[in-house]
Inverse folding.
């Protein structure tokens, strides 16, 4: 049962990450009215990647604490 919960959380995070990445790549203008360039899109994707890596790091730390 524990494995299913972790899998569900990872699946949700993966789906949300894919959706947000597609939104970042498709939108011509963001919410503030800024016209998106490839540089600003890459920066936004970089920020998203850092968030996902931080999430994965925290999850890994929690798993290690639970195992020991």
């Amino acid at each position: 049962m524990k494995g299913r919960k972790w899998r569900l959380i990872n699946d949700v995070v993966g789906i949300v990450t894919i959706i947000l990445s597609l939104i970042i790549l498709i939108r011509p203008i963001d919410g503030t009215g800024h016209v998106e360039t490839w540089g600003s899109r890459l920066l936004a994707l970089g920020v998203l990647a850092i968030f996902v890596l931080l999430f994965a790091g925290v999850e890994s730390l929690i798993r290690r604490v639970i195992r020991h």
